[in-house]
From TrEMBL:
<dbReference type="GO" id="GO:0019888">
    <property type="term" value="F:protein phosphatase regulator activity"/>
</dbReference>
<dbReference type="InterPro" id="IPR016024">
    <property type="entry name" value="ARM-type_fold"/>
</dbReference>
<feature type="region of interest" description="Disordered">
    <location>
        <begin position="12"/>
        <end position="31"/>
    </location>
</feature>
<dbReference type="GO" id="GO:0005737">
    <property type="term" value="C:cytoplasm"/>
</dbReference>
<dbReference type="InterPro" id="IPR051023">
    <property type="entry name" value="PP2A_Regulatory_Subunit_A"/>
</dbReference>
<dbReference type="InterPro" id="IPR011989">
    <property type="entry name" value="ARM-like"/>
</dbReference>
<protein>
    <submittedName>
        <fullName>PP4R1 phosphatase</fullName>
    </submittedName>
</protein>
<keyword id="KW-0677">Repeat</keyword>
Amino acid sequence: QRTDSTLHYIHNDSDLSTNSSLSPEEERKSKVQDVVPQALLDQYLSMTDPSRAQTVDTEIAKHCAYSLPGVALTLGRQNWHCLKDTYETLASDMQWKVRRTLAFSIHELAVILGDQLTAGDLVPVFNGFLKDLDEVRIGVLKHLHDFLKLLHVDKRREYLYQLQEFLVTDNSRNWRFRAELAEQLILLLDLYCARDIYDYLRPIAFSLCADKVSSVRWISYKLVSEMVKKLYMASTSTFAVDLMNELVETFCRCHKWSGRQTFVFICQVKCLFICI
């Protein structure tokens, strides 16, 4: 067992030496830890080998991905270097079910690793998931607020430009995707300033209010009302006035009855009456 373990360390060290993003000090780090028996960790890391998944069990990579946050929690952030390569391997797995599993748990892993490791190691993976299949994207979308709130303010603002992309899905009939987006935008209102809400979240909210599916529209009405409340309570109240004027022009004076009905539904929320 010691011989196999030694060969495993040598193999991993050679992999690290090929990664130009690591410093010489990090390259010298071994994947040895003292939290759990080393042979147990070696066995877990070996199960993520793609060739083993093809010959032993096609579901083995998915199970490893499901267990990875628990392994990371057990080892602690100080031993993240033992799992980093394995995580990146799983994040680029050919099976979308493996990537989907990681996408659903990336926010939990971010809590375990802290802001520095999250910004350096998880954000690139998160960005890759945003461009993946809808089956993978829904994982990061359902916990978008949980992940973004852990990032630095400047890094968090970079994702304002990408929120619009969630309106585009592989299947236009996937209305639950848009409904989840509306739910997450309600939570994201607490993470951004009034100008960011008005410039970036407002156009998305108006688009969702005109969705073809009623379930999406109902959630969007709540989103718009919460947005008005948030902007009204901000120090710069002109954004709230501009937003309400746009609501009147877009929906209240709409030539279609459905648009005027939308305005009435939004006005059902108590906070909007208080603002007016």
